[in-house]
Amino acid sequence: MKRTGKTKWTEAMLPTVAEFFSPTGPLAHAGGLLFEYRPGQLQMALRVEKSLLEGPHLVVEAGTGTGKTLAYMYPSLRYSLLTGKRIIISTGTKGLQEQLFYKDVPFLESLLGPFDICYMKGRSNYLCRQKLYDIKPASLTPDENREYKVLVNWEKKTETGDRAEIPAFPEKSTLWPRVDARTDACIGKECASFERCFVSEMRSRAESSNLVIINHHLFFTDLAIKMKTEDASILPAAHAVVFDEAHELEHVASDCFGISVSNRRIGDLARDIRQAIVGTARANAIVQAAARMVDRFALLCTGLPGKVEPSRVVFGSRSKFLQEYDETYEGVLSSMKYLHLELSNLEDLEGAESLVSRTSQLYGELRYLLESKEENAVFWVERRLAGPGAQMNVFIQATPIDVAETLSSSIFERYNSVVLASATLAVQNGFSHVRRSLGITEADEMIVPSIFDYQKQALLYVPPDMPDPRDPSFFESAKKQVLELLKISKGRAFCLFTSYELMQKMHAALEGELPYPMLLHGTMTRKELLESFRTSKNAVLFGTSSFWQGIDVQGEQLSCVIIDRLPFSVPSDPILQARVKAIETRGGSGFFDYQVPKATIALKQGFGRLIRSTTDRGILAMLDPRIQHPGYGKMFTESLPPYRVTNEIEDLRTFMSGCAA
C-alpha cells in the first residue's frame, strides 16, 4: 500500500520542527484535535532532526503520553521530503505499523498534503495469486472451501493482496499458508502470475517512497538475507532508520538470525514435491524418497533431548547424539541428496528450481544444526503444540548468543543515522543495558518524562508478608490478594502472569467467585479477547506475555493491573542460560547485567497498560515481595515511573473511592 504525493517540496512549504510543534503551529490548529503543547515532544523531535542532519545515533525513552510517534514521524518526513533521502521506520508489531500508515500518516497529510509513503510486511502476509489459481477445491475441507471462496472474490478487487484487508478471515486458517507468498515455494520470474505479483508491486512502491514503514521482523529478516547475499535484499536503500518499540530489537534480531529445522518444515517440502511431480516419469521414486525423508526425520526427532510435552531444552550433546543416531541422520541426508539430484534433472517441471533450492537449504541447515562448532550460538530443541489436538511440532534450533557485534557493523556502522525509541528502554535512568546488548557505541541519549501525573493517577500496592513466589504457599496467598483486589476494583482489571500454567490455575480458582466476566488468554484470539474486554462491563482478563505490551485500553474499563511476579525469564531457557554464561565468562554478572535489566523493562511494559491518558486512574499490584529486595529490588523501583507506593490495602479502597464504578 502506498500514499502518493507529486509535490516538489521546499523549505518554505514545510514548517520547521519547532514551528510544527509550537503552541501556535499547524499541530495546534488541526481541526478536531485536542492539542496540548508538550515541551518533551518538541525536544525529542529536535533531537531526532539533529541526528538525521548531523548524527550521532539517538537512543530515547519517551514516556507514555509524550507524543513519541509524531516526534519522530514529522522530522523524518520533513528531512526526507527536503533531501530526497529515504528513511525506514520500523515498528515492533504489525498493529502499530498499520496505525502509523492508516492513522498518523493521513493526519500529517491533512495538515500538509499527500506524500510518497508506503508500508511493507513480510511475504507471508500477502496472497500469491498463482497458488490460489492452482488450488483444487475438491481437495479442501468444508472450512477451507468457505475460506477459498472468500479469497477468490477478494483477489479480484484487492490492490495490495494484504491479508489484513479481510479482518474476518480466520487467524489460524489452514488454507492461508498454502496460498501466501512466502519465499519457500516462490518460483520468481518463472511464475505465470509474476507480472501481477503483490510482493513485486510492494517492492516497486517502496523504491519510489520517501518513508517506508515496516516492522522489526521484516527489517531483520532482510538483514539476515543481505548478510548471505547482498543482491537479495527486500528493503530499498535508506539514509536512516527509526526503530519504534526498540526494546524488542535484541529478541527479534536473535530470532531472525537463527536457524530452525522442524518436522513441519520437512513435511511441507515433501508435500509440495509430491504435488509438483504428479505425472512425471520419476514421480513414484521421488514420492518414495520424500516419504523416507519425512519418516527418517521423525525417527531422528524421537532421540532429541526434552520431554514429550511442549518444552525448550539445550541440545548440548550433539556429538553423542550423532554417534547414537548416525544411521538415521545419514538416512535423512541421503534422502535429501537424492531428491536434490532428481529434482535438478526435471528441467521441464514448473517450480523445480524452487524445490531444489529448498531441499539444498534444508540439507545445509540440518548439517549446521547437528555438526557446527560455532561458539557464538546456542543449539537447542523445542517441542511445540500447533493447537488443541494438533500434532507435536519438533524444532532443532540455533540462536546467536550475542548479536551486538553483528548489529554494530550491519546497522550502526551502515546507516548515517539510527534512532531507537521506546517508552521502556532505560534501567535506573540509564541506557547501558541497551547499548551493551545492541552494540551501540556512539549515540546521544535522552529521557522524555511522561506527561501523566503518576502520583495522583496511580497507586502501586505491594502486599505485606507475601511469601517468595518459589514457596509452595505463594499461590494461596496470591489468590486471596487477587480476589480482594478485584472486589475493590469491581473487576475492570488485567491479571498478568509470567506463567501460562499459573494463569490457568488462578483463573480456575477464581471463576465463579466474582460476578464479573472472567476472560482467559488462549480461549479466543488476542483481538477477540480485547474486544470482549472493552465491551463487557467489569470484565477481568487473565493474560500472559502477549498482553504485557502493545495494548491500549483507556478509561474506567481498565482500572487495575495485577502482576503475579517479577518477569524474570525462565531459568532453564536455553538462550538465557547461554547469554548469562557468556557474560559471566567475560567477568560480568549474568543476573545484574542481563536478567534484572530484561525483567525491569518487561515490568515497565506490564504496568504501562494502566495509565494511557491524563484522565485514567487506577491501582497497580505487584504480588512478588522481591520488588522490595534490599539488593536488586531498587533496580526495579528506581526504573518505574514515580508511583505512590503502599503496603496497606485500605489505601486502595480510599483511592478507588474516587474512581467511578
UniProtKB/TrEMBL annotation:
- Nucleotide-binding as a keyword? yes
Keywords of this entry: ATP-binding, Helicase, Hydrolase, Nucleotide-binding
Please verify whether the record's keywords include ATP-binding. Answer: yes
- Matches recorded under SUPFAM superfamilies: P-loop containing nucleoside triphosphate hydrolases
Q: Name one GO molecular function term.
A: ATP binding
Domain annotation Helicase ATP-binding: ranges = 27-297
Example GO BP: DNA repair
Pfam families according to UniProt: DEAD, Helicase_C_2
Could you tell me which InterPro entries the record lists for this protein?
Answer: ATP-dep_Helicase_C, DEAD/DEAH_box_helicase_dom, DinG/Rad3-like, Helic_SF1/SF2_ATP-bd_DinG/Rad3, P-loop_NTPase
**Which family, according to the similarity comment?**
Belongs to the helicase family. DinG subfamily.
Q: What is this protein called?
A: ATP-dependent DNA helicase DinG
Name the source organism. Edaphobacter modestus
